Amino acid sequence: MATTQKIFDLAAAILFESKGGDADFDKYAPLFLEQLLMEALPYENQIREYQGRERLETAPEVTTIDDQTEIDWDDRITRGALPHGLASKFMGDDNNKKAEAVIEYNKFLQALEEAAPAIPYYGESGDEDA
Fold this sequence. Notes:
disordered C terminus; 58% helix
């Protein structure tokens, strides 16, 4: 489990930035993190199923980056994958860092795959044969 601040700090370390260092990072980090959590949801659910825990219906909403907002997900996702995804989002608008953004996004995807390598059909129940 990690806080939104921890995830932000790990992403900022990849970029050699800090909270308050760039107003756009601070403004858009919650929205980017929420998008990434939706992408990571099937992987978190696979881990939960393997551990015998209840699946999540949706990813948590992220309204702020702080030390009180915890994401109660597997550390391999919160501390391993999400920082790379967040760093890739921050680099996305910098034309000089397009290639680096793609590399960081690929690291995000790779970390998700390594956290939960075998994902069964993820959709509505009863549609497995569709």
